[in-house]
Amino acid sequence: MTAGVVRVALRRTLRDVKYVEVVRPRRARGLVRDVYRQVERDFGMLAPPIALHSPSPEALAAAWAVLRESLVAAGTASRADKEVVAAAVSAANQCPYCVEVHAMALGSLGEPEAAAAIEAGTPGSIVDSDTRALAAWARGEGPLPAGVPRDTAAEFAGVAVAFHYLNRMVSVFLGPSPLPEAVPPSARAKAKAVLGLLLKPGDAPAAGQALDLLPAAPGPGGADTLSDAFARASAAFEAAGERSVPSRVRDLVRREVKAWDGKPPGLGRGWVEPVLAELPPEERAAGRLALLTAKSAYQAGAADVAAVRPERTDDRGLVELVSWAAFAAAAAAGERLSLRPAREDSPGRRG
User: Which residues form the Carboxymuconolactone decarboxylase-like domain (predicted)?
Assistant: First the structure.
């Protein structure tokens, strides 16, 4: 009975997405319907971090493609190790919603100690040295564990980039917890335990099934499935940016994230306005929201969204503005990741 209640509550959390109206599953058509079906089949539920993209079908497909093909689909890395990366990146990005979700998933996979440490903000206390090193790498604080094969390293990098992206979207459009506010404090522990069971992955689905949701994109011949998925998603996000983000704003954000070291820019928002000075006044609201999304999405608030609404009265334009900036930052974060293990010649990590 509790599981059923939690499932219903999760469906209702689609109503808790801020600023935009999510397409309801019964009303989904075309590409949105196709993505929703894959999400419910392969992820087990229509996750709000994906559904919030639905005002822009192409951004929805791109977000699902990077999540599915990096975290969900079968590969050489274990799902538990990929959940370590997802949770650790989310903690570094100060995204409590994603930390809670992926710590629960990690705990359900038999790693409750690592899950608790990451959720508590003490990943250095993780007992297993490989898991501790993997969490540190995901936060940009060290190399990969010794002996990680190249294909596995690429999968870890894919998960990291996917969550640098999703953390930013969640920070703007969702609250701090996957559980609805209506769940009383006395019931939250039990509800989290049930949700953890619901999040426990089953058999990993075959890789590549999200590719047909997006057009093929230019890239090196013979690219692997994961690279192909990210190339298609990148092209979709770039097209969204061309539709919904002024070119001067895109140039400014690209320059800022390229020069950035990935660390939080500060407790306040004083860094934003001087950067915006080069934009014409009519583009500063879009520039502000894009910059905040890219570098400190947890600081973006209702006033920042309201300021862009006069130019972007439709939900599609707002989703595309934020998603373009989020992916620009995520791609830059991926370029900063080192894929070299601590020692190249040591035994491989568990699969």
Answer: 59-111
